[in-house]
Predict the structure.
Amino acid sequence: MFRSKIGGIGHYVPEWAVTNDDLSKVMDTSDEWIQERTGIQERRYAKKHTETSATMGAKAAEIAIERAGITKEDVDFIIFATLSPDYYFPGCGVLVQRELGITKTEIGALDIRNQCSGFIYGLSIADQFVKTGMYKNILLIGAEMHSMGLDFSTTGRNVTVIFGDGAGAVVIQPTEDENQGILTTKLHSDGTYAEKLAMINPGAHGGYHFDKMGLDMDFGYDESIKYGEIFLTQKMLDEGQYYPNMEGKFVFKLAVQKFPEVIGEALETAGLKTSDIDMMVPHQANLRISQFVQKRLGLRDDQVWNNIQKYGNTTAASVPIALCEAWESGAVKDGDLVCLAAFGSGFTWGSALIRW
């Protein structure tokens, strides 16, 4: 059985940098308010009607493929993680395949819907495929275009100020080097409080989940309406229910609990200690969360890579973007023990340990 490694890595962020002061012009917020709560100073927004999650993912993928020393035609499987797909369906996996011009090989494409944990989930899947010898060059992409679906008003500021656009990609390959590669991945989920961080409408639920849970949520459904007419109602439009919602304090408390737990679990499986970590790359959800976890684990500032200040939360793209920047800067070197961790909507969370 082979071990899998990251053979190439790349990232892409749009040119347009949107500062906190820019957002304060369209909603009641301020640079001080945003930085105090999130640590974010600016984020990137893609070009509407020109860039998408798939096109940004393709740009990151081209860099990763080149650095892996292969051609696009050598890719034998695609995994695409996002919560902001180009279409409701089909998924972005086939779209990025087309964008890269590798449709003739008719390779498989898998879409991951685990939000902020999507890249970690995808990494775990790719790891298993390579270990068993099923594939040799798996292209794993995390990409997001949040700016197309945010509420740019004071009502939506708690969510809108956090998110940005971008993409990261890696090529997962086999290695026979016992001192290199993915050591372990750990995945978890708990759907009990799924609606605490969600974009509920438009959807095909017809209010089912809310009735079942006894939640007091009126989404304007009329039982007399024929099936096929309840995907998007006038009430949803009038009340802006098609925007993401988040109970920030609840999410924060759960995240700072699960991050250290899942990291500790990975270390225990690998027979390692926190002190063995050379670089931790957390999902860039909130700088305050990263700082809390860093303190809890007893890591120095130079052992944790944070770039949320520049890009905001790019959910499924945040781990590969940050990992790529850390590697490009020389902060991740051959032989280093790298720890990846993420927590997101669902709720889902996971970690990975990699010997670089």
